[in-house]
Amino acid sequence: MKKIALSLAALSLFAAPAVASAQTASATVTASATVQASLTASTTHQLKFGTLAMGSSSTLASSGASQAALSGLSTAGLGQIQIGHNSNVNVTTTVPTVLTNSTSGQTLGFSASCATASTSGGTGTAAASCASFSFNAATPGTVQSTYVLVGGTVTGNAASGVGIFSADIDFTFTAAN
Amino acid sequence: MARRTGTSALFGGRGAWLLAALLALLAAPCPALAQGTVSVLPVQGLRFGMLSTGMPTVISPLDAGRRATVELVGSGHVTLLFELPRGLRAGADGPLLPLRFGATDGRVTFPGSGTVLVFDPAAPVSFTLPPGGATIWLGGSAEPASAQPPGAYDAAITVHVVVANPAT
Known about the structure:
The structure holds two protein chains of two kinds.
Chain A: H1 2-15, E1 21-35, E2 39-45, E3 58-60, E4 79-85, E5 88-94, E6 98-101, E7 107-117, E8 125-126, E9 132-135, E10 144-155, E11 165-166, E12 170-176
Antiparallel strand pairs in A: 2-4, 3-10, 4-10, 5-9, 5-12, 6-7, 6-11, 7-8, 7-10
Chain B: H1 6-11, H2 13-27, H3 31-35, E1 38-44, E2 46-51, E3 57-59, E4 68-74, E5 76-83, E6 87-89, E7 96-100, E8 106-110, E9 115-119, E10 125-129, E11 134-138, E12 140-142, E13 151-165
Antiparallel strand pairs in B: 1-4, 3-12, 4-11, 5-10, 5-13, 6-7, 7-12, 8-9, 8-11
């Protein structure tokens, strides 16, 4: 009888309802996304020094109270680029050191100055250097316009003769998130 | 004929074997507990990629390149619970990019059988993990606002696995 009782006891260990227990484990994965910036740029005015006397220099200030008007079809004035953006923007610029007469090959010295304004032709805030500067989005995420005003100085040189002197100033705008 | 006593039933012949087996059951690591151990292995995050402002993007749980993937290895009866973020953030205190998880954005696949279990990641889901393990896939939707600030956004999705052992 004891043998049978012992066997039943042993079997009951296997047959009895299990005592509940639980283990836990966890893992984490990352969800990610990049919201791309909206960025457009268009030149609205060219930088024009107009007609200068041979050998004379001219400066167009891009910022502050002395700011010159924007250039018209035939009038001297600042260059301007309109940038539509919804994030901060970094700007790099390649500024030529001379303006070149494409007919004679003669050159005039040149340097540029840059400023930013929130309205077309508005009072500009000077950039420390045209070569590299930045401006912010007042309301990140909302597309807004900022205007880059471009002035500069052309250095007269009578030896360069007469004619049309020109050069390209290349701007690169990069959205900074 | 000799008559076995209680003592001889416990310590001699088959009784001794039975006692040894009982002691072994009490002393040895429980086999059921060992079988109920499950490892959770993160494989891939939920990748929404490049989004445009105001343009919702949906990732299907069947999108192998972008869905989140987690592997379960082991066996036992398991319950999955997801901690789903309200949205992605650009930095700790940055703007929120809302996320949404639908009722069919969760999948559990069992490689051994080819069975697929569709589930709502917002609710717990339970199943028995076969020896071959299982793979969890998670999709979802990102809903950037029209004025969503540009930038890189992320958030953590945590899956908790509770393993219920049938016996200890």
